[in-house]
Amino acid sequence: MPKIFILILLFLMDFSISAQENLNVTDDTANEENRLYEYVSLDDNKVYDVEIIVFAYKKALPNYKTYKNKPIFDDSTALNLQLKPDDYPETDYIMFDDSNTSQDMDEESNKSEFTIAIADEETNKQALVWFEHKPEDYKLIKTWERLIKQPNIVPLIHKAWRQVETPFEDPTYVKLNNIVVDENSPDDDSFEPKEFNQPRSIKNSAIINSVSLDNNNDLIDSNIDTDNAKALQKQLYSDFTLTGMVALSKGRYMHFGHKLNLLMTYQNEENELKNMVFSLIERKQLKTDELNYFDSPWFGSIVKITEFTGEEIDETENNATDQ
Question: What CA–CA distance (Å, rounded) separates 298 from 293?
């Protein structure tokens, strides 16, 4: 009996440890699936650093009685990029797989195989993509600072990230907005917007609850899934709110496209606050290592694309373009 009891106890302990290990593996797998960043071969892919500044013009709004709001773009399918984890290097190598090497290879054969392994590592350099750069690594900081000083311009957001090129016919969009929802804010109309105080983007907590947009039926893009657009319509956003997405794509040439909305507020004859919605949908060819300008009557962007080759970059040369 004691022996049987001991065997049962050991079995239960082993089962408990195995279950815990499986649980940990499941948790790790779930976390891994939520990560957007991945390594791609620099031999087989073009990798780019994308940096964008979006700004708005300070100007009188059009007559709300005659102006028709632009559609609100649904950005629910766009990538919401995160900062690169510290334990992930920007570049890595595919290690040579010698698992099928015969154990009885002679010494010369082993030396030859080792030489091939080194060569393979050098020609299979990998780059981490789909992550956001830290603000201190931005290249257009001086441009942002100059825009802040312009009396008729409001800088809205400054972002930079690394990505692989995507096809012109089906580009991958990256989410871009300056909305920061305050989880501790009350659910009534007494909630007031916070001041814009972010150095790299306007921190917009300006969601005023329980107020709808005018002409809701006119704010839906019929060519996209409208669930997210409808959700946006249920809120009133403060002046200079930016929502939407952008995409870098490559066909015969490199292109950059916008699907962005700028939301401003106005007061109607009944003293109700409403949103006026503008859009920037420009998509055009652009060149790398240059400042590219996109514009509309109400807001625009400055975009710089730099190819990432995995080599060290001369920061002095890069900063020379931000003059």
Answer: 14
